[in-house]
Amino acid sequence: MNSKDGVVKTPVVLPESGVPVDVDFDYAELLARYDEERDARLARPTSRSKGADAHDEEALRTWDPYAPRIDREGVDLDLDVVVLGGGFGGITAGKWLKEQGIDNFRIVEQASDFGGTWYWNRYPGAQCDVQSYLYLPYLEESGYMPTKKYVGGKEIFEHAQRLGRLFDIYPNALFQTVVTDVRWDESHNAWVIATDRGDTIRAKFVIRANGPFSKPQYPTVPGIDDFKGKIIHTSRWDYQYTGGDQDLPLDKLRDKRVALIGTGATGIQVAPRLADAAEQVFVVQRTPALVAERNNAPTDPDWVATLTPGWQSQMHENFTDQLSGLVHVEDLVQDVWTQIYRALPGHDLVDVEVSSLPEKDQIHLSILSDLKIVNAVRERVDRTVSNPETAEALKPWFGVVCKRPGFHDEYLPIFNKESVTLINARQGLDRITENGFVANGVEHEVDCLIFATGFETGPHTVGSYGYEILGRDGRNLREHFAGGLKTLHGFFSRDFPNLIELGLSQNAFNVHYTYMLDRKARHATRMIKHALDADIVSFEPTHEAESEWGEVVRLAGESHAAYQATCTPGYYNGQGNVTQGIFREIYQAPDRDYWGLIEEWWENGEFTGLELNKNG
């Protein structure tokens, strides 16, 4: 027996080897608390949907508050490639197409510029949780160095524009253009794309780079259309109402009572800016966020002076290796992600080599390490928030990768301000009234409701883009995927020839999203280049190849699904239904293993599982 702070605890030993584990908590008690919190949230499942009027799906999909309308005539084009989406996936696809010598393409984007998420998410405080030296692609090629370890959304958007100029893809872009229809024309071996601008575009190949976070969503709350104040969604921020901008104070909120609905990554970033500006802020929390330190800092010029050519690629590979479980490599990144993934196997909890332990012991050790990591997060809450009741309500009770962790240095301290009130609405909002909102049976009057409620998500997002994809014989891709994705390697689908997916579709996932997109774009464009050079008019997988790859993905994801089933509801686990979680249809294997498989498939030159159809 041992004790800490007067509490007697039973020593923990691994179930098969009997190796003692160095923890100072009762793991059974913690796991029981996790189950209690999950069950409480599942008692009222989350329901998300559009509202009406100002919250209408179509209005949000087409409305751009950041740029005037571009007037142009519809175009009629015959192209080699159409890229759907102008975020970093579309940008890198354009880069690789140009590098392959393919210039007869267009990038179709509903926004007024490149940037994707970073075009729309101009809310105050926006940042990425992957450090800028990794996240901003092609820093060496562009000659740009981020101003901070974690730059703001404005700087990320500016870098997207910088890459658009660097790769000379602005002439290939159709901005402020919404795709309305994508159909395969078998007689011409081409896709026909229609848009809301009256465009008719025929393309041999389509690369879909819309991204998983493209359709803003409001929660379904009774009375949302009765509210007489201002409603803002964080992806369509209204600086005319709040004043300021992404850098300047929100000066028009000085006399305003504001409710922030949602405490995911966006809510965490917005809240401090609101707390600095508004007369009163209600932070409405359904599930506490896991908030670790960000430790942001200006870029150190002395560090920059030490960098040698190839430094960013080296950091990419180092980061990916560590998140793939290779914790014995040197940590060149040293951020919260690498800290978490290096700690998860539990090397610091035992005096033996973890890989030498039985598999059951390794799993048990990882659970104990997970509990220890989140314990440290809860201890940080106690150190930071002075009100014990508020601090207790802010503590997360779920596994460290149940939800995307939040990293922020200013979020927790705002709850020490008299002007900030935490509304711990475990079951969500009761309703919205003309003058405010009701949570836990209590009405709070506010002037403004700010929804940090994210985007429509799911195991596949083909139905969230506002258009249908119709393949051979009119087959609907949304219906084709209704029972689960059917792909080869996550890129290609039967009966949808020459359609290549860059999103989260039975392929590898990396929290370093732009790096992942760049690798996928390279693979997609070299496949197109090969087809054009070899006079291949169409390619698509066999049914057997789809089925076999689907089984590989399913088996690889079993342990991840089991973990997610223990989590409180969120978009990671489909709001408690793991079959609808965003990662359900992703290949849950180390990044280097997936891309090793793809490179081997490519280099053997047989394109196993893919039917290549030539002219004649």
Task: Give a written overview of the molecule.
The chain is an alpha/beta fold. 32% of the residues lie in helices and 17% in strands. It is built from 19 helices and 26 strands. The strands form eight sheets. Strands 6, 7, 8, 9, 10, 11, 23 and 24 form an eight-stranded mixed β-sheet that branches. It has a five-stranded parallel β-sheet with strand order 13-22-14-15-18, with helices on one face. The chain has a three-stranded antiparallel β-sheet with strand order 19-20-21, with no helix packed on it. A hairpin with a 6-residue loop joins strand 3 and strand 4. Helix 3 (88-99) packs parallel to helix 16. It is globular. The model is unreliable at 1-8 and 47-55 (pLDDT under 50).
N- to C-terminal distance: 79 Å
Unreliable runs, pLDDT <50, ≥5 residues? 1-8, 47-55
Number of strands: 26
Shape: globular
The helix count comes to: 19
Radius of gyration based on Cα positions: 25 Å
Please state the average pLDDT score: 90
Helix content: 25-40%
Main traits of this protein?
alpha/beta, 26 strands, 616 residues, 19 helices, globular, five-stranded parallel sheet
Q: Layout of SSEs?
A:
Elements: E1 2-4, E2 7-9, E3 12-13, E4 20-21, H1 27-42, E5 48-49, H2 57-62, E6 76-84, H3 88-99, E7 105-108, H4 117-120, H5 132-135, H6 139-142, H7 153-166, E8 173-174, E9 179-185, E10 190-195, E11 200-208, E12 218-219, E13 230-233, H8 239-242, E14 257-261, H9 265-277, E15 280-285, E16 291-292, H10 301-306, H11 311-323, H12 336-343, H13 359-384, H14 388-393, E17 406-407, E18 420-424, E19 431-432, E20 436-439, E21 442-445, E22 448-451, E23 468-470, H15 477-480, E24 499-501, H16 513-533, E25 536-541, H17 543-556, H18 558-564, H19 591-603, E26 610-614
Helix pairs in contact: 3-16
